[in-house]
Amino acid sequence: MNEKPSHDLSPGHINSCQICSAAELIPVISLGHHAPCDSLLWPAQLQQPEKTYPLNLVRCPDCGLVQIDYVVNPEELFFPEYPYRSGITSSLVNNLRSTGPTIMDRYGIATGGLAIDIGSNDGTLLSGFKDAGMRVLGVEPTNIAKIANDNGIETIQEFFGEGMAKSIVSKHGKAKVVTAANMFAHVAKLGSLIRGVEILLDNDGLFVTESHYLADLLDTVQYDSVYHEHLKYYSMRSIIRLFDYYDFTVVDVDRIPNYGGSIRVYAMKGKNQHVNESVSCLLEEETKAGLYDTPVFDRFVQQVRDSKKDLQKLVVDVCAHGGRLVGIGSPGRASTLLSYCNIDPDLMPYIAEQSTSLKLGLFMPGSHIQIVDEVRMLEEQPEYAVMLSWHYWEPIVAKLRVKGLRSKIVLPLPTVRVLEP
Ligand SMILES: [Zn+2]
User: Fold this and answer.
1) Separation of CA 294 and ligand 1 centre (Å)
2) Fewer CB atoms inside 10 A, N or C side of the chain?
3) DSSP state, 180?
4) pTM over 0.90
5) For a pLDDT cut of 70, what percent of the chain falls above it?
6) Pairing between strand 248-256 and 232-233?
7) Per-residue pLDDT, 1
8) Which domains does the chain have, with CATH numbers?
């Protein structure tokens, strides 16, 4: 193996692979310049300039990592008022809560041990561990940490790193499980994170990460999951390559439905661990699917462009014929989709969100479409509603139908589809 690259990225343009430092990155698609997807705007901020950054997807011919080539300062992305809350999407809540018991069963982890979640958000994942009898501790840099603490999940509000790992061990002891769910692909100081986890974990401890999975992204044309927070788009091959640089062995993997298709990757300390055959099976599937070959990416890019044209045509046609069209749901990925497809408030006057959302009254970055309580959509009954949380559409649409929504529902991806009421 070559000398170990630094996995702690500095803000700015990246010109070598984030994992293996290979210099010749291959362009996949350029989505243009975008504002950070969770930097929602207050009305007064609409009078100010808005910062945008390039959003280019590239891939490494060596380790296979698909990645973006620009790092925005994490303090700018994960600011204290960061509005994302995992505990309000019901299908996600169930998946997150079951994570702890699933891991404990599978690896025979005894109750009473310490479970730590890095990027613990509102503590939903840890509540599953807690209910199963573990001691729990969260680490979360944004104000969402307060919600977790209020709900009885002890949470440190800071960015995680080696220094914090040492102080946690001195106060709470070593951990039996450390999880990093849906933040592992988002962290710029990844080297510091992994070294911190080495410090935190007991010798027989388990490090479990969850990341959006490249094969699912490509299969279902999820270009909207490309945004600045999301630096890496992992495959099995690239994540194994990453852990090879550290004193960890990737021992197991599951494919899970979270966020439109993710992989849960299990790693243990040391290099001589038993590896479950799930790992070699998935590696083989990736090779068979051509996940490291040009044609798969050419097809993806064609599908992205086709879906953009189809969605633009539908939206413009509806408006040209006097129809009303709104959006449903404001996940981070909606920013990428709306900006890339040039959909603005003239075409989509508002986006409807659940009454419990922290985003009501704010404006989407880039497109400046306002987020409003779904009550308005239910009163107005627009002819069309574009499902921006399309990766979770079924339970959301079912709920809205029960509440009386009669609009036609537009699913923007993987291909544009209209669901009649
Ligand atoms: Zn690489």
Assistant:
1) 16
2) N
3) E
4) yes
5) 97
6) unpaired
7) 47
8) 86-292 (3.40.50.150), 295-419 (3.40.50.720)
